[in-house]
């Protein structure tokens, strides 16, 4: 079993829940692309 995580946080420009989830989703796909057992933090917009 392997895991990948995408992490995002609310910022001044990304205050809406859907915006934060979109950033987390992008980070998750970056983690999956980077390999197994990886954590990526979302880029600040």
TrEMBL record:
- Give the species: Paraglaciecola aquimarina
Q: Which InterPro entries match?
A: Diguanylate_Cyclase, GGDEF_dom, Nucleotide_cyclase, Rev_trsase/Diguanyl_cyclase
Q: Which reaction does it catalyse?
A: 2 GTP = 3',3'-c-di-GMP + 2 diphosphate
Q: Where is the GGDEF domain?
A: 1-44
- PANTHER family per the record? DIGUANYLATE CYCLASE DGCM-RELATED, REGULATORY COMPONENTS OF SENSORY TRANSDUCTION SYSTEM
Q: What's its EC?
A: 2.7.7.65
The protein in question is named: diguanylate cyclase
Keyword annotations for this protein, in alphabetical order, are: Nucleotidyltransferase, Transferase
| Pfam families membership | GGDEF
Q: Does the keyword Transferase apply?
A: yes
What SUPFAM superfamilies has UniProt attached to this entry?
Answer: Nucleotide cyclase (SSF55073)
GO MF annotation, one: diguanylate cyclase activity
